[in-house]
Amino acid sequence: MSCRAAPWGRPSAPRGRPFPASARLHSPFGGMNSWKNPVLKNSWRIGDVPAMFGLPSGLFRCMASNGSGDAGFSRPQSIDEAPMPLYPWPDKQRPRVCILGGGFGGLYTALRLESLVWPGNNKPQVMLVDQSDRFVFKPMLYELLSGEVDVWEIAPYFTELLKNTSVQFVKDSVKLLRPSDHLRREPGVSCTGGIVHLESGTVVEYDWLVLALGAEAKIDVVPGSAEYALPFTTLEHALKVESELKMLERGRFGKKSPPIQVAIVGLGYSGVELAATISERLKNTGTVKAINFQTTICPNAPPGNREAALKVLESQNIQLFLGYSVNCIREVYASEDSGSMVADAKEAGGGDKKLVLELQAAQRGLQSQVLEADLVLWTVGSQSQILRLQPPDAPYVIPLNGRGQVETEETLQVKGHPRTFAIGDSAALRDPSGKFLPANAQVAFQQADFAGWNLWAAINDRPLLPFRFQNLGEMMTLGRNDAAITANFIEGLTLEGPIGHAARKLVYCLRMPTDEHRVKVGISWFAKGAVDSLASLQTAVSNIIASS
User: Fold this and answer.
1) pTM of the prediction?
2) 349 CB-side CA count, 13 A
3) Whether 104 contacts 213, CB under 8 Å
């Protein structure tokens, strides 16, 4: 009997050494077919040792295998291996929803499920898994470098956000996905949607799964990039960059030293926002060199945002290297004797360390360049996490496109997997024109709302809604008191400068995950704004008095 034909029927004996006679099921249900009752999987015994919260890993491999015949079942590697702990859901009757990833897509889906009205006893148990203990409002990571926000404002703890909900938060990393909702079911048999292996060793059995793992920075692109460049996509990355900038600033404080040199690779939204923020912070103590493969900045941005950004970059004397690609990054040292750059630290005699970027012309008419920098930030390239989470014996069980994103239906369900949803950077979804949706917070916000509703509809046997993205506009920060906002519903309107900055912060304050956090952040930002305004007024009055 194949696992595909009847995944919850009694399997034929696996090949190889059989189970010992002492391995048996102890069940109060007598002769009931225990393989058709997922709840009974918690009552395995190996010999006289109970395994109330786990099963041997080989049995899980059997459950989700998509092979055929006896070869589709895997024998446990060792009869004496310790069973993996099975996550204990509080209620054995209510549906179990496992959400992987606590970014905008994952957290807001969990909160959406919590806010819906559920008939009868259908309200699901929701589990949110993330490798960090904080939710990160990523569009405002740049304000950490400018000092406008505190960590708690844009990176609150999950436990704080979820304390008034029934959502269960688990800090862990995902190791392996084993969905089984693609297998053919016997009519009338209640089955699970699959299992998730976590890095801690815990196994989570679920009925419904939401993939919202996002994407990781792909930094190992050219020789030296992984060793010497820093990405800027997580809170840890932002804190690392802040630490590096502080160290450079302190090392040059009160000394006649050359200016700090920061190189930024990529001039999409992230690169432009970083360049503007760091240049404003360094002022006359440093220079920013921005490199982009294309000859324009923010090629996918609305014209109003692009023009506002270019105006700010030029006004801050940021050196733009457009039409170049980075060939390699290497480390050199300044020789104290000759002032020349050498590759050996001993030969330099304790000189300052520098990074050298070799640029290759990507456009005709340009010459190759060599740049020096104290700090290199890498903002281009990302990769999906789903590919490395697929089971090795079924590497294509979750359909992926060429970019490693999950192929989904219009309802956000994974193709061929009716109990699995994919949203955010993990999902490959196109707009009506056939273009991939951008990997930004606005898309994840809207997908989370639809994913929550469609989970409600699926659990309650109602029709699911097709996802339709509504582009409301785009925003970007351009400094401590500067931003650009282009609203899609008002053609040609772009808010710039302090007005754009205030509007952007207001929108993001309203987008914070919970009402309680919105109030806290709003009060904090209002107080900071009042103090800054008072300080600016005091400075202006002092200047007037001094000049009179």
Assistant:
1) 0.81
2) 6
3) no
